[in-house]
Amino acid sequence: MGTDVFVLGDDQSYAASMANDYTLKPSSEMSGRSSSRAHIQEVAAEVLSKENGTGKVFSIYGTGGLGKTFLMEELYSDFTHRFTHNTVVTRHSFEGEEITSEEKILKELSDLLACNGVPSPTFRMNYYAWRAKASNFALAKAEFCADFEQAKNKGVEISTMLSGLAAPFIDQFTQGLGGSILNAAIEIGVYAADSIKSAKACNEWKSLTEEKTSSDLKRSLAASLKSDIEAWTGRNERKLIFFLDTFEKLGWVAGEWRIGRYDWAKTISEAKGSLWIVAGRCRLAWKNVVRFPVQLEPMSSSEADDLLVKCGVSDSELRSLAVEKARGIPVYLIMLADMINRSSVAEARRDLLCIVDYDNLVEVYLRGLDASLKPAIYTAAFIEYWDYEFMMAVGESFIDPNAIAQLENLSFVWKRQDSFEMHEVVADLIRRSAKGPVVLKLFKACGDLLGQLGSDDKRTAYAKDTYRLHVLKARQLLAVEGVDVLGSEAAFNARMQYAEAAWHNGQVEQAYDLYKEIQCSYAPTSSADEPSIYFLRAKLKTAALKTQLWLTRGERTWHEQAIADTVEVLNDVREHYPNERLIYLSALNDLGISWKRFKDFDKAFYYQNQVVRALKDKKAKELDADEARFINNYGATCQQYGAKLKQEGNASEGQEYLKRALKYYDKAYKARKTLFGTNSLQALIVLTNKGVANMLMGKYPEAENMLEKAYRGFKSGGFPTGDSSYLRARFQLANVSSNKARELKDAGLIDEARIEGRKALELHKKVYNDKKECLTEWAVDTGKSRDAVKAAEKFLAEL
C-alpha cells in the first residue's frame, strides 16, 4: 500500500508529494474516526448556520483501504437524518467509473441534483448548445430526447426541468424530421408551457449557438452549473451538502495527476450555500477548503475493536488478535471478521496466529474459503470488473457457476451499475498471492478468449476492440505478477499488447503511459550497462507515441524528441543486436514516417527504402502485422511525395509515385484483410489510403467508391464517429467533393461546381466539429479541417 499523499491545488500542478508536509502533522489536523466525524459535523453545522457565502470544501484523504468510503457512508447516513431542515444532502461516487470527460461528469451531477429538487436549466441549455456546436444539431437533439426518455424513470423534477428546455429543440429540428420528435414535444407538454418562457428559451438557444464557439460553451459548463446551484440556494434560502467519493479517479493516471481534470470541481464547489465533502487519495488545497482537512490513518485499537463488534465478533481475545494483525486498516478488519465468523474459535485463533503481514493475511483468508470459490476470486482480482457472462467466458473450464453468485457476498466486492468490482487494495494483494498454476491457467484462458474473438460474429468491430482491451488488461496484470512462471518474453509481450490495444482504441495518452512504464521497468541500472532488447522495444514504441502526442497537442518538440529517441534505438540495435530484424525494421520505418511528417522526403525514403528492400520477396499473404504496417507506411510516403510533386508542377513524376503508393497499399490491404478481417480498423485504414491516392490521381469515381466503402465499414463495424481513423475517412470523402468542385469550376460548369462545393462544405463542417470535440481545437488534424472549411467557404464565395 502506498504511503505518499498528493496535494491537489494551489497551482502546484499536482506534482508534489506531501510526505515532508505530514512528517510532523499539526495537532489540529484530524485523523481519528470519532474526532474526524465530530469535526466534520461541527463544520457542517457552522456552514449551515450562516448566510449563503462562498461554498466550502471538506477534504478527507488517505491511502487505499483506510476506510474513506466507509466514513463517507457513515457521514452521509448521519447527515441525511441530522440536517433535515432547509437542506438537501446528496452524494456521488466515481468508484468503478470509466471517467471520460468533464462534460459527462457535470451532466451526471446535474441529473443527480435535479432528482433531489435542485434544477440546473442554465447548465443544461449550455450543455446541449455545446453538444450542437461541437458535434451537430442532430446529435444534440437526439441526446436531448434520449435524456427526456430516461428522465421518466428518474422523477418528475428532472422531467420538469427538461420540458422547460424543449421549445428551442422543437423549433430547430421538426422541419424535415419524422413525427417522433414532435410527439416527444407534445408528450412533455412544451406547447402547454408559458409561451413567454418558451420564447425566452428559444432566444437563449439562438444566442448560445450563434454567438459562442464550442470552446466558449465548454468552458462555461462548470460555471453555469454553479450559477444554477446558487440560484436554487438563494431563491429557496436552502443549503446543499454534496458528498463526492473516490475523487482520485478523476485524474490519477500512471503515477501522476492530469492537469485540468479537477478544475470543474473547484468551480462548482464555490457555489454559495453549498458544502462539499470530498474523499480520495489526494489532499485538496483550494482556497475554499476548510483549513484543517481529515487525513485518515489506521484506526486506533478501540476504533478497530468497535468495528469488529459491529461485524459480529463477540470473542474479545479474537478481536484483540484481529486488531493486532490488521493494524487498523478497515478493509482487512472486515475480512478478518468474516474469517472469524465462519470458523470455530480454535480455528480462528490458529489462523490469526499464522498472519505475519498483509500478503499473508490474504493467503490465510483465502485458505479458509470453500475451494470452489477460490478460482472465481483469483479471476475477479485480475479481470477487475465483471458480469456473469464475462466471468464464465474467462473461467468456463475451471470456475463453478454457483461461485460467481457467491462473490457478491464478500465484504470487498461491490456492485457497479451492470457488473461487480473488487476493492482495488484487496485485488492487488490477491494478485500478488496468486501461485504459478493459477497465473498460467488464467493467462491461457485469456489467450483462448482472444483467439475466439476473431470468429465472433455477434459483436461489432468496435465492441470486439473494447472487449479485447478488457481481456488484454487482465493478461497484462497477469504478466506483471507472473513473469517468473510465464517467462520474460511472454510477460513482456502481454504488457506491450495491452498498450498497443489502448493505442488502437484511441487512448493515446494511456498508451504512452503504459509504454513509458514498461520502458522504465526494463531500463539499464547505469549508463554503462547494455540496454536489453525489451527496453529498446518499449523505448521505440514510446517514441512513436510521442509523435502521436505531437499530432494531438500540436507541440513540435514531442516529434523532435521522438526522432532523437528512435535514432538512439536504431544505433543501439546496430551495436548490440544486429540479428534482431523486427526492431531494426521498425526503427527504420518509424524514422521514415517521422521525416515524412517534417516533409523531408530524402531522409524519409532513405530509411523506408531499406525496409521495402528487406520485404520485397514476401507476398501479401506472407506478411505479418508489423510487416503489413511497414508496407502501408511506405505507400503513405510515396503518396505524400507524389502529391507534393504534382503541386510543384511535376505531374508526370508525381503520378508515378501515386501509382507506386497504390501498389503498396494493395499489398498491405490484402495482408490486413487476411490477418484482421475486412471491417477491421487496420484494413479500413489502408482502404482509406487507397481512396486518397485515387483522388490525388484524379480518379474520383474510384476514390469515392473506396472511401464510401471505408465509411460503411466504420459504420457497420460500430466505430464511434469520433474515432480518429473514422474521422480521417470522412475528411477525405469531403476532400473528394472539394476537388471535384474545383474541376467543375475550371470546366466552366458553375452550377454543378456550386452544388458539389456546398456538399464539400457541409461534410467538412461536420468533420471539423467532431474533431474539435474528440481531438481538441488545437490538434494538428483539427487544424487541417478548420483550413478545409475556410477553403470551401472561400470557394463558394468566389463562385
Overall structural class, as computed from helix and strand content, comes to mainly alpha
Q: Using the CA coordinates, give the radius of gyration.
A: 30 Å
Poorly predicted sequence stretches spanning 5 or more consecutive residues: 1-5, 11-31, 171-193, 253-257
Please count the helical segments: 36
Q: Mean pLDDT across all residues, rounded?
A: 83
Distance between the termini: 68 Å
Helix % is 55-70%
How does this structure look, described?
With 799 residues, this protein is mainly alpha-helical. The protein contains 36 helices and twelve strands. The chain has a five-stranded parallel sheet, sandwiched between helices. A three-stranded antiparallel sheet has the order 10-12-11. Helix 26 (533-553) packs antiparallel against helix 27 (556-576) and helix 30 (625-647) packs antiparallel against helix 31. The chain is globular and about 90 Å long. The chain starts with 5 loop residues before the first strand and ends with a helix.
List the helices and strands and how they pair.
Layout: E1 6-8, H1 33-49, E2 56-61, H2 68-82, E3 87-93, H3 102-115, H4 121-134, H5 137-151, H6 156-163, H7 166-173, H8 179-187, H9 195-211, H10 214-236, E4 239-245, E5 252-253, E6 256-257, H11 263-268, E7 274-280, E8 282-284, E9 294-295, H12 301-310, H13 316-326, H14 330-341, H15 345-354, H16 358-367, H17 374-383, E10 385-386, H18 388-395, H19 401-407, E11 413-415, E12 420-422, H20 424-433, H21 436-453, H22 461-481, H23 483-486, H24 488-504, H25 508-521, H26 533-553, H27 556-576, H28 581-597, H29 601-615, H30 625-647, H31 651-676, H32 681-696, H33 700-716, H34 724-746, H35 750-775, H36 780-798
Helix pairs in contact: 4-5, 4-9, 4-10, 5-6, 5-7, 7-9, 12-13, 13-14, 13-15, 14-15, 16-20, 17-20, 21-22, 22-24, 24-25, 25-26, 26-27, 26-28, 27-28, 28-29, 28-30, 29-30, 30-31, 30-32, 31-32, 32-33, 32-34, 33-34, 34-35, 34-36, 35-36
